[in-house]
Design goal:
Blueprint lengths: L1 H11 L7 H18 L4 H4 L3 H5 L5 H4 L10 H22 L1 H29 L3 H13 L10 H7 L5 H14 L4 E4 L3 E4 H18 L3 H7 L3 H9 L8 H22 L21 E3 L8 E3 L14
Antiparallel strand pairs: 1-2, 3-4
């Protein structure tokens, strides 16, 4: 799998979007402005499979404009800056292509999860959504077609957002930098891997609490984390230039180790020069020395002979 990903990167890596986290923040800013102008606009851009199948294909992409919860703007700004920081850190470490692949696969799995939930509801509820829509139409009148055309699926569509995609980015950061410390509540130092474990437990609990909807809403959004790290367990992430330098460094280290472990065939007992270091140098054993003493040609006739009783 990692070989296939390397081939894909070599072919399409030049099309990767640099500084992708910055563009995600720009999308959120556009979404905030749209909501200030018209608070109901979220119903026209949400990931609603029912509306998409009825011609509103723009929803496949516009749900990325939906910003996080605006109940506390200060907290939201802090979280956005945090996700921007970890996103840029991952992009610098993995390379733009790998981060693009991770983010957009999270988008794809979220879209597939939305359509999976649509199919599940249609097959399991046996027309309950139609009954719910009829009741809501009787109370509130026909829904504007631009807002999706279905009260039931409008509510389900609002469950899908970039929140869990951002969570998958944080989990990737925790897996990449497990020993990095962050200040929880601005003064409590905590290792990222601890927060990653807490978030993972929280997400599993949320999936169980919202079962089976949580499987489509949360589980699908986190599939990129599971698949990406399984596929890359034997693959060194980073830019092609970085991986080339790492490969060259490992090759040099192996050569140095092999060279260090080589036992010299010939070594001068006087100067210590070896046949490995000086392959053109001649070495001879001295027949007058007691023992197997070998000398280079410069010391073969000038050394002091070693006697047995010396």
């Amino acid at each position: 799998m990692h070989k296939l990903l390397n081939k894909i990167e070599l072919k399409f890596g030049k099309y990767a979007i640099e500084r992708l986290p910055m563009y995600v923040l720009i999308c959120y800013a556009i979404g905030y402005i749209m909501q200030l102008i018209n608070p109901d606009i979220i119903n026209a851009i949400s990931l609603n499979p029912y509306a998409i199948l009825h011609g509103q294909v723009w929803r496949l992409f516009t749900w990325l404009l939906i910003p996080p919860d605006t109940s506390n703007l200060f907290f939201v700004l802090i979280m956005l800056y945090f996700y921007y920081s970890i996103g840029m850190s991952l992009e610098r470490t993995w390379g733009a292509f790998n981060f693009n692949l991770y983010f957009f696969s999270g988008m794809l799995f979220t879209v597939l999860g939305a359509f999976g939930l649509y199919c599940y509801v249609e097959l399991s509820t046996q027309g309950t959504t139609a009954i719910y829509d009829a009741m809501m139409i009787q109370e509130n009148g026909e829904m504007n077609a631009m807002f999706g055309g279905s009260y039931a699926y409008r509510s389900l569509a609002l469950m899908f957002s970039t929140y869990y995609v951002n969570m998958s980015i944080f989990l990737a950061y925790a897996a990449t930098y497990p020993d990095m410390q962050v200040l929880l509540m601005f003064f409590i130092p905590v290792k990222v891997k601890v927060l990653g474990i807490i978030y993972a437990i929280y997400l599993v609990a949320m999936i169980a609490q919202q079962w089976p909807y949580g499987m489509f809403v949360i589980g699908a959004s986190l599939l990129n984390f599971v698949i990406f790290f399984i596929a890359n367990r034997k693959r060194t992430l980073g830019t092609p230039q970085m991986r080339a330098r790492q490969k060259q460094f490992r090759q040099r280290m192996r050569e140095a180790t092999v060279k260090q472990n080589v036992i010299a065939k010939h070594k001068c007992a006087i100067c210590g020069r070896t046949s490995e270091e000086y392959p053109d140098l001649e070495f001879r054993f001295c027949s007058k020395c007691a023992g197997n003493y070998e000398y280079c040609k410069d010391h073969l006739y000038t050394h002091r002979h070693i006697e047995r009783n010396s």
